[in-house]
Every structure is written in C-alpha cells, then in structure tokens.
Specification:
Elements (H helix, E strand, L loop, with lengths): L11 E4 L11 E5 L1 H10 L18 E7 L2 E8 L14 E5 L5 E6 L4 E2 L5 E3 L10 H19 L1 H17 L5 H5 L4 H17 L1
Antiparallel strand pairs: 1-2, 2-8, 3-4, 4-6, 4-7, 5-6
C-alpha cells in the first residue's frame, strides 16, 4: 500500500473505533501517503504532502474518531508562534503539557475521512535501541497522546459538531465552512478507493 515508515517525518494518526458513544484508548497510526495526496488534489484545505511544496516531510499526526457514520482523522500540527495567542475555537484546540506549555494543536477544519485500508499502527513505546533523537520524539508523542486520551470526549464532540455544521448547515458560519475541508467530497474519494479495493 505504500505506507510511510517514519512516524516523525511522515504521516501518523490516532485511531478510535467507537466515536463518542464508547470511547476506548486512542493510539497512533500511519496513513497511506498516496491517499493523502489524492485528497489534497481534490481539496486545497487538505494539508499538503506534495514534494513540489517542499512538504513531503511535514508531520501529519492526528486523532481518528467517528463523525456521523464515518471515521475521520483530525490532524495535529506542531505549535507555531501564532498558536501561543490563539484561543480554542470550533475548529481548533491547543494541546498543552503539565506545565501549560503548548506542544501541539488539533486542526479540526482539516480533518479527513479514513478507513482501515489506509492506516497501520505506530509503536511509540521506548526502545533501548532508539537513537537520542527518536527518544525525544517518542517522549513528545506520548505526552500528546496522553493529552488526547484525557480529552477524547471533548475532541470527539468538537469534531462531530463541526462535521454536522459543515455538512448540514454550512450557511450558518460561512467563514468557518470556507476554511474547512469539503467533507462530503472527500468521502466520495474514499468510497471510490474502497470500490477499487473490492474489485481487485
């Protein structure tokens, strides 16, 4: 399937099967890079992984949960200077450590539909053979994952509220809708991919 092999410099995701009804523990997953590119070609609000944009090594971490009847990935990004003063809102959440330091952000407006066929799990457990840089990366990923698990109900409710707003009543907040992915359009692309897999 062409899954990426590096959890730090490629695309990785959390996975949660049961949506808001029965939330189990979240975990990190890889995603098929070609699938992300297919979505980005159809919708400019999908975070790019294009070599032409020098973003083929962009970290793409996210939490996967159920929106409506679909499984979605909410991308996580590294914190930037602008995030220090940004407040949580309908399509954005800050991730902080125990000292209140921002260590990541969740971009709900860029969430994408996924399925089992485009994800595979990441092992972020510490290993004695890990080089120093990998030890540091895994430490941050574990802190981020702990935060997501402590706030998984909030994450799921926010994702579902945004999904329904954009797909059912987009005229209510047009500025918000414009910066969100076209969820229904991306679902069509995923459905076609699944059809092709079934045919093969």
């Amino acid at each position: 399937m062409g899954f990426i092999k590096s959890c730090v410099f490629r695309h990785s995701f959390f996975y949660e099967k049961n949506g808001c009804k029965k939330l189990g523990k979240l975990n990190f997953y890889y995603v098929d890079m070609k699938y992300i590119r297919d979505l980005a070609n159809a919708d400019s609000n999908v975070l790019s992984v294009s070599p032409q944009d020098n973003k083929q090594t962009r970290p793409f971490v996210g939490v996967i949960l159920v929106c409506g009847s679909r499984t979605y990935c909410v991308p996580l990004s590294s914190p930037k200077k602008k995030h220090e003063t940004m407040k949580n809102r309908e399509d954005f959440s800050r991730i902080v450590d125990n000292n209140g330091r921002i260590i990541g952000v969740l971009n709900f407006n860029n969430m994408i539909p996924v399925c089992q066929e485009v994800i595979t799990p990441i092992d972020i457990r510490p290993n004695r053979s890990d080089p120093p840089a990998q030890v540091g990366r895994k430490k941050i990923m574990n802190i981020q994952l702990d935060w997501c698990n402590k706030n998984k109900e909030l994450i799921c409710k926010k994702a579902n509220k945004l999904y329904h707003l954009v797909t059912e009543t987009p005229e209510k907040m047009r500025s918000l809708t414009r910066r969100c992915c076209d969820f229904k359009k991306l679902e069509t692309i995923l459905d076609k991919r699944l059809e092709n897999i079934t045919v093969k």
